[in-house]
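Tokens as discussed.
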């Protein structure tokens, strides 16, 4: 499977975080990746945390890049702050400082690298494998649907499909 890539730019305001999170999830769905609720939540939280950190700690434009290849999604956020990101050691009462800890927990891998005028912070999320359309059709027919046989008898659809 070839790698699918998309980019989009944000101006770097807090109001853009929620729509950007939805845009990330919508794009992954548009690529045909079957997403269960747990994976949607993980993608949404990771995207929100990476984008929010870029908004809070950077200034100016942010570029979000999504890369999807066999079984994984990489969310890469480029911001204009070259400061090294740090995993937080927050107190219980603190409102923030846990974002990268959550990203690290939810992602298969994560990291950062310097870029000209800023840095990339990225996370790779494991995705469910997609079921081919033919496999889905066969599975639905195996679930108990029946088809008439050429001789007038009712036979399981899977048998009728195999002998047709």
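Sequence:
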């Amino acid at each position: 499977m070839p790698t699918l890539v998309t980019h989009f730019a944000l101006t770097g305001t807090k109001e853009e975080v929620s729509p950007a999170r939805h845009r990330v999830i919508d794009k992954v769905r548009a690529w045909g990746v079957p997403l269960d609720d747990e994976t949607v939540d993980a993608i949404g939280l990771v995207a929100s945390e990476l984008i929010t950190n870029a908004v809070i700690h950077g200034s100016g434009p942010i570029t979000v890049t999504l890369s999807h290849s066999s079984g994984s999604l990489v969310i890469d956020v480029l911001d204009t702050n070259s400061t090294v990101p740090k995993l937080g050691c927050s107190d219980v009462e603190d409102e923030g400082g846990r974002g990268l800890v959550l990203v690290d927990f939810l992602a298969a891998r994560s990291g950062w690298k310097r870029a000209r005028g800023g840095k990339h912070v990225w996370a790779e999320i494991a995705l469910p494998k997609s079921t081919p359309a033919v496999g889905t059709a066969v599975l639905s027919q195996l679930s108990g649907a029946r088809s008439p046989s050429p001789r007038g008898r009712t036979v399981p659809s899977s048998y009728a499909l195999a002998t047709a």
